[in-house]
Amino acid sequence: MIRKILSGISVLIIILGACVCMYPQARLMYGRYERNVIIREFEQETQAYREQHQKQQLTTEEQEETDLKKSLDRLYQDLQAYNEQIWQEQQSELKDAFSYEDSCFELTEYGLHENMIGTLWIPRMEVELPLYLGATRDNMKKGAAILGQTSMPLGGKNTNTVIAAHRGGGSTPMFRNIQLLQIGDKIQVTTPFDTLIYRVSEIQIILPNEIDKILIEPEEDLVTLITCHPYTKNTHRYLVKAIRSFEEENSREADLQEAEESRADTSEELIPEADELLDAAGIHYSETQILLEKYGTLVGVAILLYICISGIAGFIKSKRKREK
User: Fold this and answer.
1) Alpha-carbon 42 to chain mean position
2) Could you give the percent of the chain with pLDDT greater than 70?
3) Distance in angstroms (rounded) separating the CA atoms of residues 316 and 118
4) Are 243 and 221 contacting, i.e. CB atoms less than 8 angstroms apart?
5) Helices 67-88 and 2-54 meet at what angle, rounded to 10?
6) Are the beta carbons of 231 and 285 closer than 8 angstroms?
7) Among candidates 191, 202, 189, 188, which has minimal Cα distance to 242?
8) 94, 113, 148, 200: least CB-packed within 10 angstroms?
9) What is the C-alpha separation between 50 and 194, in angstroms, rounded?
10) Residues paired with residue 145 on neighbouring β-strands, in sequence order
């Protein structure tokens, strides 16, 4: 009887351990599914407008404006005016963290029901995120957010769209693996108006108050990614700057293949001096913390299961010896 009870307990422990191990992955998959649903709905909602907006000549039938087209035309003009305004004013309102949360636009008033301005796709990180305006707490929970008082994602000279995201939050990694990005890697921003492609041109680690690092640069068309660093410490900011590349949009598969080939090209060991610089910058610390978070629970549960099963097996073995 005791043997059956112990066997039942061991099976229960194994099942509970498996559930604990599977929970983070299941949560990750569900979070990815939720984001993909939001992104696909946004793409379907705005696809017709994007196709019309990008054509130079429209047929009479296409020129019959729907309510959504009127709203998005007005949004495009307002966003352009905003970009010109902050450039002329030299982003004078970008003074502190509260400025980052501000957004002058309520996108639901323009017919965008999820209040999204677009999507962000980073092949090297294998991350696709909804893109919102204003780095509010709510927006940062749901995806990436464009900092207030920085350029709206329309492209063009004298623009720098600064996009922030957490280094992991709940069921999504977001910018957790931002240190994977290398010079030349692709960053793609899709809005109702266009698909804009950028290539990484500079990587920096800065202090939170170094606002000058994210300002618009004259004549440049930029996107800048920013997140906390080192991972879990968050004393600095990891900044990735990318410059506009007027290339054709590729399929997701082609983008991932390019990223894989690029990863292979940069897999050589670093010279000791470069390795020391990475340590000083907190890169290795971040990578270690990410690995511990990813595999720590699995290893811990495996050890616990081993101890429990070994203990039960030893108890049964000793009991049998006594019975003999």
Assistant:
1) 17
2) 63
3) 61
4) yes
5) 90
6) yes
7) 202
8) 113
9) 6
10) 132, 164
pLDDT for 111 beyond 50 = yes
The answer, yes or no, to whether residue 60 has pLDDT greater than 50, is no
Dist CA 173 CA 179 (whole Å): 13
The predicted-structure confidence for 10-55, as pLDDT tens digits, reads as follows: 556 656 655 655 555 566 565 666 667 777 777 777 776 666 555 5
What's residue 263's pLDDT?
72
- The Cβ-side half-sphere exposure at 257, using a 13 Å CA radius, reads 5
SS3 track for 232-278: CCCCEEEEEEEEECCCCCCCHHHHHHHHHHHHHHCCCCCCHHHHHHH
Residue recorded with tokens 């939001």: 38
Residue in the block written with tokens 């019309």: 52
Residues 6 or more apart in contact with residue 31 via CB below 8 angstroms: 170, 171, 172
User: CA-CA distance, 267 to 260, in Å (whole number)?
Assistant: 11
